[in-house]
Specification:
Elements lengths: L1 H26 L7 E2 L3 H6 L2 E11 L15 E13 L3 E17 L4 E18 L1 H4 L5 E18 L10 E2 L5 E2 L22 E21 L4 E12 L13 E13 L3 E2 L1
Amino acid sequence: MRKKILVVLMATLLSGQSGSIWAQKEKRSIDDEGMASPDADTRYQLPIVFVGSGPSFYTGNIKGPRNLSKFGGVRWGVNAGVEQRFGKFFGAKANLFYGRTAGEKHTFTEFENFQSRLITGDLRFAFHFDHLLGKFEAVTPYVAVGVGYINFRTKSDLRDSDDRIYHLWDDGSLRDQSQTGQTNGNPVELQRDFSYETIVNKSGNTVIFPIELGLRFKLHDYFDLGLGYTHTFILNRFLPNTGIKGTDHYGYLSGTVYWYLGQFKK
């Protein structure tokens, strides 16, 4: 009788242990490198680290159809930060960005250009659609809005490679002498060198309001790839003394890698 009871107890214990091990295997997956990813609950409880890069471009008023920059006004930027999810739909993102943006306007009556170095920090509140679209959706959209601060430094290309000042003429050309007033010899037509050598705004600081739209592509339990666009409004202007009042703004199109913290060695 005692032997039968002992056999039953041993069988119950072994079945319980095997069931627990099986549940843990279902809860966490182990990849080929021996790293186990967090379960679905841990995936959103722990912070999400991200880093991205892509083109940034000016979208404000200083633009024109003639003689645009040889780079088309497009510059490059990088960003990094951390996000914390709250519940199924909401998240808070702390984001840092470093990059440049540029604007060009060259018509028969106006000649303006600039390039600004940008350093920003902001806090965004995100809404995620992954739980609305289904648990096994491979691509999920999100939106985010926020507030932050920017430091920028603006330079303009006002001289050519031989240090001659650009003067705009009525035919739209740039020459080494003014069209009005006395000329010294024959005016020479100049070509832009796009060097942005003249500082026109040493240090600008103001509040920014970023709006972000994006997609996340779920490739693994503990990392995603993302494609996003951020449109940022600033309460200042990159190029001063233009006679244009109000805010300025620029866009940033980025590819991003997201890493969900919580993986461990098996």
